[in-house]
Amino acid sequence: MSGPLAGCRVIELAHIMAGPVCGLMLADMGADVVKVEKPQGDDTRRFLPPDINGESAAYMMMNRNKRGIVLNLKTPEGIDTLRRLIASADVVIENYRKGAMEKFGLGYETLKKDNPGLIYAEISGFGRTGPYAERGGFDLIAQGMSGLMSITGEGPGRPPVKVGAPVSDITAGIIGAMGIAAAYAHKLKTGQGQKVDTSLFEAAITQTYWQSAIAFATGTPPGPMGSAHPLNAPYQAFRTSDGWINVGAANQANWEKLIVIAGAEHLGRDPRFADNKARITNRLDLEAELNKIMPARSTADWLKLFDDGGLPAGPVLSVAEMHADPQTIARDMVPLVEHPVAGEVNTIGLPVKFSQTPGGIHRAAPLLGEHTTEVLHQAGFDEIEIAALLDKGAAIQNKPEGTAS
Fold first, then answer.
1. How far apart are CA 200 and CA 210, in angstroms?
2. Looking at residues 363-368, what average pLDDT do you find?
C-alpha cells in the first residue's frame, strides 16, 4: 500500500457502514486495515440484491483495500487471538453498542495495558457519554434527531424527508478517520495513544451549520426549502426544456451575470431583487420570474451560456450519469478493481489527492476469511497455532475457487 498513512496498522471491528467507511478512508490513504468479521460475516454481505456473481455489491463498496479475517469471538481462543493482533496495532475501530467490547475483555482500558500507544476509535449512534449513550443508532434515526429531516424536502407542510444518502453514517466514518489521523499524528510525536469517540448523531448535527446559525441568530429554526438555499438567492434547481439545472447565482456579481445571460436585465431594475436580502425576502416571486425564463432552453444550452459567461451552474445528474461524467473519470472517482469472484468491479475512488504520497484503490474487498492465515502469520503465529485455531473454529480461512489452499 502507498499513501500518507502507509505503515499504520488498523484492526477494524466494525460492520455495515459508519465504521467500515472509517476503515476504507484509512485504507485508501495507505493504512493496512485488517477487517475482523464474525463467522457469518459483516451483515452487508447479505444486503442482496444487487450482487455480482453472488458477491454483495454493498459489501464490496464498503470494504475495498482491506484484508479480511474471521475470528469467532464466542471462543476464548478467538478473543485471545484478537488481543494478540491488537497488541501490535496502531488503531482499533469499533462500532458496537456501549459495553459490548468490555464484555469480550476488549475495552480500551484493558487493551491499552498491553499497547499504550493504541488509538481506540468508537463510532456509535449517540456517543459514549450522555443520556442516549446506551441507545443503538441508525442513519435514519440520527437524521431525524439532528434536525436534518426538518430542513429536507420540498417545503413546509409536507411529510418529513431524509437525505437520500446515509449522510450521518458516511460523515461519521469520515469524521472518525479525521480523528484517528489527528490522534496518530499525536502518537508519532509522543508515543501516546488515546480514545477517539464520535457518533452518527454528532455527524448529522455537523450538517446543520447554516441552519443552526440562522436558528441561533433569529430564534426561529428554518424549514425545508427544496433545492433552495436559506442564505442566498437564486441558488437552486430550475426546470429547463429537457431536465433540471442548478444555478449558483450566490452573490451580487453572479446575479448580474445571470440576468444578462438570460436576457432578463429588467429583473435587475426590480427593487424586489435589488440585492441578496431583497431576493431572499421575495424568493417566491424571484422563482416565479425565473421559472418563466429557464424552460425556454435545454439544459445543455444553458450550461454552454453559463460556462461562457462565468456563472457557476451544473446539471442534475442521476448516479449513473455522474459515473460517466468526464470530470468524475478525470478525478479517478470510479476506478476498476479486480475481485477474485466478481471479476472487474467499479468502486468509488479516494476523494483526496496527495502530491507526494498518493493513495488510491489497490485491492478488492476480501472474501470472508480470505486473509486469515496470512494475517496470523505476519502477527507471529506459527503453523501449529494457526492449525489449532482453524481446527477449533476460533478462526476461519476461506479461499476463492481455483486458488491454492
1. 19
2. 97
